[in-house]
Amino acid sequence: MKPSKKLLVFVMAGLCFSCDKDENPVQKPVQVTEFIGSRVPVGNGEAWTYIRTDTSQNPLEIGVQFNASALVNLPSGSMHADEFVLDLPSEISVAPYDHVTLDWNEHGHEPMNVYDRPHFDIHFYLMSMAERNLISPTDSIQFNAPLAADYLPPMYLETPGGVPRMGAHIIDLLSPEIAGTDIFTHTFIYGKYDAQINFLEPMVTREFLDSKASVDQEIRQPASWQQAGYYPKRYTINYDASTEIYSIILKEMTKF
User: Fold this and answer.
1) Average predicted confidence (pLDDT) for the chain
2) pLDDT of residue 25
3) Measured between alpha carbons, how far is 46 from 4 in angstroms, rounded to an integer?
4) Within-domain flag for 118
5) Which residues pair with 163 in a beta bridge?
6) Which pLDDT score is estimated for 10?
7) pLDDT confidence of residue 239
8) Contact 207/226 with Cβ under 8 angstroms?
9) What b/e string do you get for 32-69 counting C-beta neighbours within 10 Å, with b at 16 or more?
10) Which residues pair with 63 in a beta bridge?
């Protein structure tokens, strides 16, 4: 793998003003640092993670990016999702995130007539790969152990059963595909295992990506989090025509 890279971006952000009452407010530059993870081959292109921090290295965003050519020549014929493991940048650690997977579902997955459309699942895991590998298809007790009420986001539903090396899914009852108001294009799902939140998961269809549309959506939060760290209040999906790069981003990271 290629070594991680780090970019420095200087932006004018926030209201950093001079406080002398007789002077006009003057904005001061705020340094944003971008750390980039190793690139992984996907299709005819590549995918990678990134983390953006402020001057004090507090995380602002955690995201996955891939170039448009990554959507060409994707794996075909698999019975299950094709998983691409993306390491987070090695230069910085942001709790409670351990690694990310970009999962390509050529034919979608259950439930039928809901998520059976070609799409990507992007798992931001809050557990290690070694811990994931211990999750067995026979772990019905752990899959179905309920979250305490404070850890369940409002209008989300814990679904029965689970997936090996992943966990169980907690779906958004207000999403159009679940509410029955429209088809699945993108959504945000929580994951759990043994009554613990163990991943955050934006999902997006291939058709939505091909449309090059953008979305910026609120993430409903639980009252409390089980692990201390930074959690997003919004997620975005966008395409930059100048660079031909797609970005799927957890943003407005807030410390809990």
Assistant:
1) 92
2) 57
3) 14
4) yes
5) 167
6) 37
7) 98
8) no
9) bbbbbbbbbebbebbbbbbbbbeeeeebbbbbbbbbbe
10) 50, 249
Look at the chain and report how many structural domains it folds into. Answer: 1
Domain housing 231? 5-247
pLDDT tops 90 at residue 125 = yes
**Distance between CA atoms of residues 63 and 160, nearest Å:** 29
Confidence of residue 29 (pLDDT cuts 50, 70, 90): low
Cα distances from 85 to residues 39, 48, 126, 229, 238, in angstroms, run 10, 9, 14, 22, 21
Return the pLDDT at 14. 40
| Mean predicted confidence (pLDDT) in 114-139 | 98
Is 113 buried (19+), middle (13-18) or exposed (0-12) by CB count in 10 A?
A: exposed
Tell whether 130 is covered by a domain. yes
Measured on CA atoms in the order 238, 35, 169, 137, is the torsion positive or negative? positive
Per-residue pLDDT reduced to its tens digit, 190-199: 999 999 999 9
Give the pLDDT band (50/70/90) at residue 233.
very high
| Closest among 3, 1, 66, 4 to 33, alpha carbons compared | 4
Task: Say how far apart CA 186 and CA 2 lie, in whole Å.
Answer: 31
Please tell me the pTM assigned to this model.
0.90
- Distance, in Å, from the CA atom of 218 to the CA atom of 252, rounded to the nearest integer, reads 10
Quickly tell me which residue has 């752990």 as its tokens: 142
Instruction: Say if 255 falls within a structural domain.
Output: no
Task: Specify the amino acid at residue 4.
Answer: S
Within-domain flag for 80: yes
Per the CB < 8 A criterion, the answer to whether 166 and 191 are in contact is: yes
